[in-house]
Amino acid sequence: MAFFTDTMLQNVYPLAQLFDDLASNSAGQYNWITPNQYDDAHSTLNGGFTYNGTHYTGDSANIAQGDNFLAQVIPQIMASAAYQNNGAIIIWWDETKGGDGTNRTIPEIVISPRAKGNAYSSSVVMSHSSDVKTMEEIFGLPNVNNPIPLNETNNFGGYNNVATANDLGDLFAPGTIPTANVSATSGNLVFNPHTKAYSQSVRVTNSGDASAPAPLWLVLDNLSANATLLNADGTTAVLAPLGSPYIGINVGGDSTFGPHETRTVTLEFADPSGNPINYDTRLLSVTPTP
User: Where along the chain do its domains lie?
Assistant: First the structure.
């Protein structure tokens, strides 16, 4: 948040404020803690660090400093009503000492009454985008659209793509992370002899246990070359395949698409050839065009 001008100075407080808020049960639903460069295991204090009676230097001191910080902070959070009421603590690092790549991993530790527990270790591929996606699912937000420029990250296997990354659901008990399950079902094509155009209704259904992010777009991939979507809002420029026409889905005045709700979108096609119109449907909760 500190790198974005619209949020860098909003709701930023010393760490002590969090403990006051936890004690008064007035902490925010989402709290981000950034330790300083010594408490985050990045840099060694001059002269090293003595921890639990043992003196450490170099990388060992870095780790001991970070562990000391967590040993003080985590128990205070776990003692709070906010944590005990199905709260969660997520601990992760931003990089490895040896560099970034698919041959290296960094720790991601979840502490929660709703975590799987028992030192469970997930084999699901996750990245920092997984954390972002999980928070979007919890708070009912649309997926951000590639927020990190490619020239500023090592983009291995699409990890920078929040919409396609795995969320953190495998680290928690089943049903903890609310997820939407949105699908599209196309009706029959209807030809209008006056306009010489075809129309088709598509039913979009959320069969999941959480509200689907809004806004929401229906994308027509691999649309027949003989057909044109007349009422398209644009063509996809992110999340391949690119160049596919898309149309926005009206989710209602409250801008939410709740569980077990259905919306209908009407497609209008021009097809001078009269050949069958085929396409593959895709639903996006990210803006299809930057």
Answer: 15-171, 182-284
Interval 249-270: pLDDT, tens: 987 666 678 888 999 999 999 9
User: Which residues, listed in sequence order, are joined to residue 247 by a DSSP beta bridge?
Assistant: 218
CATH of domain 182-284: 2.60.40.290
Calculate the CA 168 to chain-centre distance. 9
Residue pair 119/171 in contact by the 8 Å Cβ criterion: no
pLDDT at 154 over 60: no
pTM over 0.85: no
Rg from Cα positions in the chain: 24
